[in-house]
Write a sequence for this structure.
């Protein structure tokens, strides 16, 4: 009876073990944290940024500043699948895609919108890849982007590439975009899709006396009707930030000259774009309300004067960004999207004539109302 019981225990134990025979130890897998896409000589060029499990894990034994090695794999093929299979051929370990946080595309890849949609369609069909992956363009080498370390040599997944919202909460300028949003904007009538670009700033930081490059979101590519329209720099886009509903915190000098009297921080703008049809032409009014507080006082100035100067600075920035967009035939303020929502018949009528229907007179009024909520620990005179 004892022998029978022992045999039953052994049999059950062996049965349970069979369920684990196909499992993989988590430390023996290659974790893809970012994907790069390029297109050259009729072939897709794919890159993967690989971290070992020890580079992803958070534990009490993790040493801040310890150099975490980054591996970059590269493949090529006439389809995205073929290019990734080339990476599998030399990866040595099973590749896991569930930790992909960012996709970076080169400028020449982005010039072919069909290739962009093809690549993104393939990645989204793969069940391990999540839908909320961040999407960037770049003018840099993909390899240089993927070997870039974060400050203090922290893990690459703690960098601006994979975690941009930490920086955005302190300095809101160009909104990080998830891939699904960009693809939907490319397919959406009346809208120019915006793709933020990431670059390497090699001037701002040093480790002791050694220069250290750091990530910077330096501008954005724009698409319309599945065509790459061009690129606008961060400076050229400074007026666009005020019509972004997701803006958390951004600053300006007042006035915007080399002799400002104060620096203000502006938060949570509420913008409303109103299209008006007059004599067959479309004119747009932007009504913007935004709260602010004083971050720095250079010269004693009344609250009313500071609000008035802030109104003018923001209006000037919006109009300047609009004018630059006109030259590049980019509807950077997304005026056409509002016309499509409010007057779809008129939008279709204009779209049959041209894909771009804005001119110097289209942006009619820009009404800005800055409300200074407080001046910090110091009190300023009201008028």
């Amino acid at each position: 009876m004892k022998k029978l019981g022992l045999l039953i225990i052994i049999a059950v134990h062996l049965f349970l073990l069979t369920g684990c025979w196909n499992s993989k130890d988590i430390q023996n897998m290659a974790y893809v944290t970012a994907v790069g896409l390029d297109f050259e000589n009729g072939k897709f060029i794919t890159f993967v940024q690989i971290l070992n499990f020890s580079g992803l894990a958070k534990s009490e034994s993790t040493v801040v500043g310890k150099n975490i090695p980054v591996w970059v794999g590269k493949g090529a093929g006439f389809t995205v699948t073929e290019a990734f299979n080339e990476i599998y051929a030399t990866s040595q370990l099973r590749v896991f895609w569930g930790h992909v946080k960012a996709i970076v595309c080169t400028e020449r890849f982005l010039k072919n919108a069909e290739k962009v949609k093809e690549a993104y369609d393939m990645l989204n069909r793969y069940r391990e890849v999540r839908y909320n992956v961040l999407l960037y363009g770049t003018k840099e080498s993909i390899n240089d982007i993927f070997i870039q370390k974060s400050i203090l040599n922290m893990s690459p997944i703690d960098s601006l590439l994979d975690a941009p919202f930490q920086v955005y909460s302190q300095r809101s300028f160009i909104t990080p975009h998830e891939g699904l949003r960009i693809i939907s904007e490319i397919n959406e009538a009346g809208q120019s899709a915006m793709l933020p670009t990431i670059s390497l700033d090699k001037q701002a930081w040093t480790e002791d006396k050694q220069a250290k490059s750091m990530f910077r979101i330096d501008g954005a590519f724009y698409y319309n009707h599945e065509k790459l329209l061009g690129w606008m720099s961060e400076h050229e886009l400074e007026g666009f930030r005020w019509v972004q509903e997701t803006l958390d915190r951004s600053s300006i000098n007042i006035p915007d000259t080399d002799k400002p009297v104060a620096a203000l921080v502006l938060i949570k703008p509420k913008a409303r774009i109103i299209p008006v049809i007059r004599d067959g032409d479309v004119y747009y009014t932007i009504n913007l309300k935004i709260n602010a507080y004083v971050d720095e006082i250079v010269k004693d100035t009344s609250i009313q004067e500071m609000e008035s100067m802030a109104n003018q600075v923001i209006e000037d920035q919006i109009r300047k960004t609009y004018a630059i967009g006109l030259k590049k035939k980019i509807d950077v303020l997304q005026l056409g999207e509002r016309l499509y929502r409010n007057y779809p018949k008129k939008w279709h009528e204009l779209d049959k004539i041209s894909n771009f229907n804005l001119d110097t007179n289209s942006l009619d009024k820009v009404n800005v109302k800055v409300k200074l909520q407080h001046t910090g620990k110091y009190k300023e005179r009201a008028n």
